[in-house]
Amino acid sequence: MYIYFMNNTQEYIITTEFTIESFVQLQAECKQKQEEIDRLTAELAYVKNELAQLKRMIFGAKSERFISEKDSGQLLLGLCLPEPMAEPVKTETITYERKEKTEKTKIIPTRQALPAHLPRHEEIIEPIEIPEGSKKIGEEITETLECKPATLFVRKMVRPKYMLQTEDGRESRIIIADLPSLPIPKSIAGASFIAHVTISKYVDHLPLYRQAKQLKRQGVDMPLSTLGGIVAKGADSSIPLYETLTDKTLNGEYLQVDETPIPVLTEDKPGAAHKGYLWVYRSVLENLVLFKYEKSRAREGPKELLKDFKGTLQTDGYSAYDIFDKPGEITLLGCMAHARRKFEAALTNDKVRAEYVMAQIQQLYMIERYARENNYSFDERKVLREKEALPILAELSDWMKFNYPQVMPRSAIGNALAYSLNFWNRITGYVFDGRYEIDNNAIERCIRPVALGRKNYLFAGSHEAAQRTAMIYSFMGTCIMNNVEPFAWLKDVLTRLPDHKANKLEELLPNNWQPLRPSLL
Description:
The chain is an alpha/beta fold and 521 residues long. The protein has helices spanning 20-59, 191-202, 208-217, 224-236, 239-250, 300-305, 336-345, 351-373, 378-403, 412-422, 424-427, 441-457, 463-481, 486-496; strands spanning 2-6, 11-15, 161-165, 172-176, 254-265, 273-283, 288-294, 311-314, 330-333. It has 14 helices and 9 strands. A 5-stranded mixed beta sheet has the order 7-6-5-8-9.
């Protein structure tokens, strides 16, 4: 075989021989090299995506909100009308008269009125000199918001003692009123103080050592161990109520489940924190939230807790939940927000495909918003979904199946498509029952205080302390879900719990709670 080539100045002729075997070998080597190039290209794309996500976690915005460039911001029902066909553009000449531009009236900004329920301390400021004969014709009122720091006080319970003697004077007995039941017997902490310290830590994310500094500024030097003991014993006193909350939550027909880590100090790992997990269960229809501490993320924890559960379970794609896929007993639902999150992460990898999917998912959320804003019943929401959401989902499913073979499996867009297709039946199952939610976002909002708290108090001091933390977050999460003020609820419940009947503890749960009476304590 002759191979002829030339450069700018010379011509070359190379004589060589090719056999069928050498050609096949060369072809195989080329194929092998191409496979290696494809593998390295896919690996490079994967590493670049991982690096982009890491940079975003450290430096970037956390918002997952997506606004399509074509989105006009309007929701039309029928929600998903096809776009009209383009028609030839017609032009016409229009003349009009315009008024002469005048100077706009300057709008003077006004302050928002202060809440009417706040007490007013009136202060009358008279002029320094009022000339004789002056008549009052009105007054100017200016209000400013003032603050008095939280004030500690001592509740002093005085119980007079009386002695009663018999007529003959031989016997006598002492008469004295019973001491009111206290949340922590023989403790200096009353219900309002326990509630204040607990709410400050778990709702306002103020660690105990900072609270100790605040107390010291008010002249109360309370050791950190004492504050910790007050929180712990306050939580222990509410164990019966927590058990009632557990039963009521797990007896619901529709649960959302998620989990979040919590560092725990243990003797087993000196010098390091054990990574425990708070498993969160939300009974959607009853509006209850339950946190349960487990030492690991293994499936044994929820498996034991949900061993008698029958109904619908909504989760993310974590494989530990696969054991609950029991047709006829448990229906598994997925989370549309988790699928959307995958495509949002793929915007830098394949913008065209990712934006298309996110725009379709956005239409699904617009349907949900329309139903919510118009106070649709469960049945009405189901009808709306079947009419408007099902066609979008059917088209999106076909699109994903067509596009998945065309992308690299390890790329961000490939991962997003694989996740959605693998869990498609779970993700879209919400359409067929108006009680179901489109995603797990509500339970993730319950977890958010835990993430904020971890950054402040850093860890739980033991496995027992981690379970107490779970108890308190259960109560606080249920309060928030039912728009109940946490401090007022906890103070009232700690006061009433010691004398409350065990078979009526359900009355004290935040979704049923009615304050007994107003109190200054």
